[in-house]
Fold these 3 entries.
Entry 1:
Amino acid sequence: MTQFGNVTADQMLAGSSVLSRSAEEFENDQSVEAMWTMKAIEHAEVYFNILCSVDPKLLRLTPHDDQIYKTFRETFPNLKVDKIIEDDFKSEEEKQKWRPFCEQFKGTVEDYNFGTLLRADCEGEYSEKNSILTSRIQFYAIELARNREGLNDGIRSKYKRTNHNI
């Protein structure tokens, strides 16, 4: 059985319904943080395994991919998405640009603000050094750009094994 800190995977699955409750109900609850972390890791593993199996240009991440990508490139036309530098991505100035972008998808994109892991360098797999915590909509925007702009094309040939574990 997988264990994360003092919380087992079974306990996290049993408590996953807690994650749908309002964040204001919790004050630095470590078990909830562990559940969020496990959910983000699970999402990353699934996504990377899909990237290793499917032509990224054909991959649909949401029913709103076209709008997300169009809005992203209108808002951030020159943002290089191959290698994300976390400090540049999360500076106060950048947060001011990202906030309105993200909020326009509230109510449209499910779980738009969930914590999600993003690969900093699109040529690498998820690892402690190559992962940045972002919102789900930022993940979608960056990964849609990487997929549509051919930056994830080499993943299938580079990582042929299955069941990637972070």
Entry 2:
Amino acid sequence: MVAVENVLKLNDYEKQYKILNMIFEKLFKIIQEAKKEVTTSGYNPGDEFPVEQKQKEAIGHIVENTALLGDVVLRLPDITKKLFSKNKEWKLLTLWSLSFTNSTTIYDETDSKLLSLMAQELKLIPRDPNYFNPFTEESKRKIKKSIKEEDPISSNHENKSHKKKKPRGPRLSHGEL
């Protein structure tokens, strides 16, 4: 979450894009390597948790990075969609990691909901009719528009701001008087 919040604080689309691209390259490299370890070891999600440290770490990498991916996708959806459209392998790996993670019993209901929302955002699964992501640029514009329409204070303020202000000239300080 801290990494995602730091990227959000940049408020510069190009910098966010570059940083997310680097994050995704590293994240998917880790998931890919962990996938190889898990599949070669013969572990199936839902099986008894392995005792071998290398397998445990691989499972942890998949689960942790899938959750991080979910946070990034949901909080920076517009940039994420552009990055995903340029790399089909990421989409396939995301599908695999989602399936793997959901098949384990590691996540609780809240975490599973996050993964479902991520899959809906990326259109990996059909969207719920009530699906709404407030972090998309389109949603932000709609929210701002509805707030302006509903808020009588801001609409009155807008009307008052159109009044002409009296021109003010230079002032004398007490010392000059």
Entry 3:
Amino acid sequence: MASVRNVLKSVDFEVFGRVQGVFFRKYTRKTAQQHGLVGWVMNTSAGTVKGQVQGPEEKLILMKDWLKNKGSPSSWIKECLFSNERNITNLEYENFFVKGGW
């Protein structure tokens, strides 16, 4: 049985609340990089922030908690939905980046 730290995972997320105009994407990128995670984040035309994060399961758990409960200093998170969580054999990105958005 593989330990949690050896399992690579990928998960999509969408964060609702006051998450645009409060440096949410910048802090998401910074936090993901601090945990050694890869993926992307972007603003949506609906006023949410969405993205994908990949890396070791133990680090992904920390990132999911940050996205759901902390966020950037000026943000207010109403809800964070996670979807398409899956095991992966290799990371699909080389780093974590901010997409241009809508």
